[in-house]
Amino acid sequence: MYSDTTADQEEKNNYLNHSKGIKSWLTSLDHKRIGVMYLFSILIFFLVGGIFALIVRTELWGPTKTFIDANTYNQAFTYHGTIMTFMVILPLIPSAIGNIILPMQLGAKDVAFPRLNLISYYVYMSGALLAVVTLFVGRVDTGWTFYTPYSIRTGGATILVLAGAFLMGFAAILTALNFIVTVHKLRAPGLTWSKLPLFIWCLYATNIIQMLATPVIALTLMLLTFERLMGIGIFDATLGGDPVLFQHFFWFYSHPAVYIMILPAMGIINEVIPVFSRKTIFGYGGMAVAVFGIALVSFVVWGHHMFTSGQSETANFIFSLITMFVAVPTGIKMFGWIATMYQGSIRLDTPMLYALSFLFVFLVGGLTGVFLATLPLNVHLTDTYFVVAHFHYTMVGGAIMAFLAGLHYWYPKFVGKMYLEIPARIGCVLTFVGFNVTFLPQFVMGIRGLPRRYYDYPPEFTQLNQVSTVGSFLIAFGLLWTFLFLIISAYKGPKAPRNPWGANTLEWQTSSPPYHENFETQPIVTKGPYDYHS
Amino acid sequence: MSHTQTTPGKHHFAHHFKDAHHEFDSCKVGMWLFLLQEVLFFAPLFVAYSLFRSTHPEAFLEASHLLNWKLGAFNTAVLISSSFTMALGVNAAQRGLHRKTVKYLALTILFSIIFLIVKYFEYTHKIHAGLLPAGMFSHPVQHDKTPIFFSIYFMMTGLHGIHVLIGIGLIFWIMMRAKNEEFGPEYFTPVELVGLYWHFVDLVWIYLFPLLYLIR
């Protein structure tokens, strides 16, 4: 493929050593460096959010007080939820992996607006820091949902967290805008819409949701800020307003937002499964359309979060019905992946192991979603641990498993070294087992009626809670193990070739790690992204 | 004025674009997408307006009598004129008429400042009369939901006002660049984009004016 001299050339001239010093990173307009900065920042927040998860789980080891008081417990689950949703899972795949991979899969030198890309990063960081700084200047206990009227009355530096979420939303909008223009305007010659890798299709659908839904939450959080500052009363019943209106606005964003988390995850699975099955993806067109089906339906189902909020019976019925439709495109995707693997030559490398874990946990998460969409069941299960388990199966099991699949899949491209295969597989198994040990018992507790977010619980739930807590420490161990070996691999791993997996998408046609401007010459696309046999 | 800053036809487009036109096209798509998200940004306020209006029409009727529609109409005319001068400014920039560009952009800024001055007098009058957001409302009214109208009024016009302020800053920036003769038939992207933004800001007001001042 390439001689030693070109290998030396690549060694000398890639995006990692193109220029040196911390300042060359902090002011870089290179989409790959910005992506790496996102990746590191988000992983640090992931660690912080994870510590809060462990605090919550440890407190729940037994009924009543284990080691923190009720108020601290409320703050702990608030920070766990806020950090994990706004700072970690929402930007994780699009802003970190997407930033690095999207322009390369398109055969472009950069995103359409590199400076805007860097600005988005700093807007995101200032928002994240504003929110985190409240840990030291007046902690927040509203839960990540900021429901009124409690969020208007409670103390703490709630406004700072609201402002932080506002800024992070703004960053997400700018990133989405940037990516959409990039996909439209910077595709390589020959890369027609019907040859786009499905990862791009998924990011594109995600970006549309980000652009259309995020402004709504931004304004809502702004109104809530003014509600606290000067009592505008729009969400305050004592002043003539309507607290349920807040819930409508909140879920008009936050329901599509769960698809901001899961669609890019599906995008990664779309890439990994064909490569490690050595087969063309099953039903390319259907897989792409299904993503847009999910994106479209995501905007009209928000009311299923509010079945017990007092909205009308008719609204409940309609929202329940439309929510069921989400299962159709999602089902198409599940069957598409399974059909892709059918009769393929499957290689069980770490990315594929994570992808298979994804299929399992996402199936559980998706099917329990159908349970919750069912109106009478929902009334019974609302605000119980069943809901907690359901959305962790989709958000953690879905988004994080897929993220880890993608991280291992593209690791050779990012770093230029192969990760160490055996420890990576062990890490995957640990995380997968830990995950199920944590959240399967929560389904049972939920069905038996244990409400979420409670500090205390009846003694008969002790055993299941303890299993769940043990599981959470197993996840923590598995993730620390995984990241430890990823760090070690950067030093000790064998040098990565250009295309270790034999994949067809464009990012594998350049050196590992890629050049500063991605490709030596402008790539020209002649065959489809999953065309392995021609 | 320096004439050497950019020679027409030699605009340096960013390295990842094919040519200057490719860059212009991409920027324009970006701006339209930005305006699309702006629509969604204002949307919750319009929803809140419709909701409270449909549940409490009598309060909104009372409240709209407390606004001065003549000042609103005057401001509407001012903003529409500013959109007109902005369009003339964009046109002049496209044709490379530097002095005309500066003149029209200066006029646009003038109109928008007049708009803000009128808004300032409207606001001070309301503040003195106690017509404030619900939490601070102190004007005698018949319907207990009337204060909510003023919450929505201040949020909507305030958010619009912030957009006007940002617009003034942007127009000033491109006016300075026009003064340096940076724009011509080959490169006028910033003027075009700020123009689009400014028309959007006007359009928002064209909805706000009848909704808040006129409908009774």
Summarize the structure.
The complex is a heterodimer of chains A (534) and B (216). By secondary structure, chain A is an all-alpha fold.
Description:
The complex is a heterodimer of chains A (534) and B (216). Chain A is built from 16 helices and no strands. With 534 residues, chain A is an all-alpha fold. Chain A has helices at 4-12, 22-26, 31-59, 70-106, 114-137, 150-153, 158-185, 198-230, 243-277, 284-298, 313-341, 350-373, 375-381, 385-415, 421-447, 462-492. Chain A has one domain (25-509): Cytochrome C Oxidase, Chain A. With 216 residues, chain B is an all-alpha fold. Chain B has one domain (20-214): Cytochrome c oxidase, subunit III, four-helix bundle (Four Helix Bundle (Hemerythrin (Met), subunit A), Up-down Bundle). Chain B has helices at 20-55, 57-64, 69-94, 98-129, 146-179, 189-214. In chain B, helix 1 runs antiparallel to helix 5 (146-179), helix 1 runs parallel beside helix 6 and helix 3 runs antiparallel to helix 4 (98-129). Chains A and B meet through helix 7 and helix 8 of A and helix 1 and helix 5 of B.
- Oligomeric category: heterodimer
Helix share, percent of chain A: 55-70%
Could you name the CATH class of chain B?
Mainly Alpha
Q: Helix and strand string of chain B, N-terminal first? A: HHHHHH
Query: Would you list the SSEs of chain A in sequence order as H and E?
Result: HHHHHHHHHHHHHHHH
The total strand number of chain B stands at 0
- In CATH, the homologous superfamily of chain B goes by the name Cytochrome c oxidase, subunit III, four-helix bundle
| Averaged pLDDT of chain A | 94
| CATH H-level homologous superfamily name of chain A | Cytochrome c oxidase-like, subunit I domain
> What is the second-level CATH architecture of chain B?
Up-down Bundle
Overall geometric form of chain A: globular
- Per CATH, the class of chain A reads Mainly Alpha
Structural class of chain A: mainly alpha
The low-confidence parts of chain B are: 1-9
